[in-house]
Amino acid sequence: MIMKAFLFFALLCFLASTVSTSPLRYEAIFNFGDSLSDTGNFLLSGALSFPVIGKLPYGETFFRHPTGRCSDGRLIIDFVAEAFRLPYLPPYLALKKGQAFEHGANFAVAGATAMDAEYFYEKKIGAILWTNSSLNVQIDWFKKLKSSLCTSKQECDNYLKKSLFFVGEIGGNDYNYAAFVGGNIKQLRASVPLVVEAITNATSLLIEEGAVELVVPGNLPIGCSAVYLTLFQSPNKGDYDPRNGCLKAMNAFAKYHNNQLKKALQKLREKYPHANIIYADYYAPAKRLSHAPLHYGFSSGTLTACCGGGGPYNFNNSARCGHIGSKACEDPNTYANWDGIHLTEAAYRYIAHSLINASFNVTPSSLT
């Protein structure tokens, strides 16, 4: 299986460096997830009357206007699309009658959870959900769209064999919602089996629908996130990693989730030997940035948010990025953290290049 993963990423690297006339390995990409990969669904859903991600400074770096992405520019999924010379994935909720989605679609929604919304309402925290568009809802959207992409079983099989499916990153919000209302590490760990099961069940459903090439990313090191560093700051120096200043317990929890997810994916591989199920490690490259920010060009660091309303990590829940009282930095490229919760385009670029190249430092020359 290690060799299989190596060959997959070697192929990604090869395709990213070939000339534009080379045949595409994949003809479409379908993405499921949350705000780490949402390209506009949350904004289009009207979940909030005036969502700040629909205003500058969001989108200022690359697109020069807000797109519904929770960053200053491109996301990991955007760089993946570029690597295969495919269009940026249109948000599913932008679907209009007669519009073609033959090169794929993005079903991710900011705030989405792996588990269904009912779970959070049962836990009495449903009122704080950003959206009810959980992973199962997104899978249902794909099923509806599929009928417009292919008709016969053979046609669908041929089409989906040439498609790449990203199932996540997702699951982070399942823990965020619980943590932000006072949940402790022990309570969060107790929910990991449920979150992992939701992710693997969704992956299984996609395989049953015909997907054969799937990437399932793990979670980022949340202990290095400005929002966690602010909300869970501790007077005990021993709670922090002396190498980077991240919260050790939170990062250990993220690693626990990732390890459980990897074990579950191995069982899926045994169940579906014909499918290529790849675990994508977002944790390691993000952690490298926090260990040596200057080495990777982050002269302003990796823990402090570029856009925020002050505080030790420039994250203020009452003056979050885009709200009154907040301000964006002059050069987001020197920051890894964008708004305290999400990363900058520069950080996403590095993680994407690590994924695509299956190496630690080499960047595909065709990606910018």
TrEMBL record:
Keywords: Glycoprotein, Hydrolase, Signal. It comes from the Eukaryota. SUPFAM superfamilies: SGNH hydrolase (SSF52266). CDD domains: SGNH_plant_lipase_like (cd01837). One of its GO terms (molecular function) is hydrolase activity, acting on ester bonds. Pfam families: Lipase_GDSL. Residues 1-21 form the signal peptide. Belongs to the 'GDSL' lipolytic enzyme family. PANTHER family: GDSL LIPASE_ACYLHYDROLASE, PUTATIVE (AFU_ORTHOLOGUE AFUA_2G00510)-RELATED, ZINC FINGER FYVE DOMAIN CONTAINING PROTEIN. This is GDSL esterase/lipase At5g45910-like. It comes from Acer saccharum.
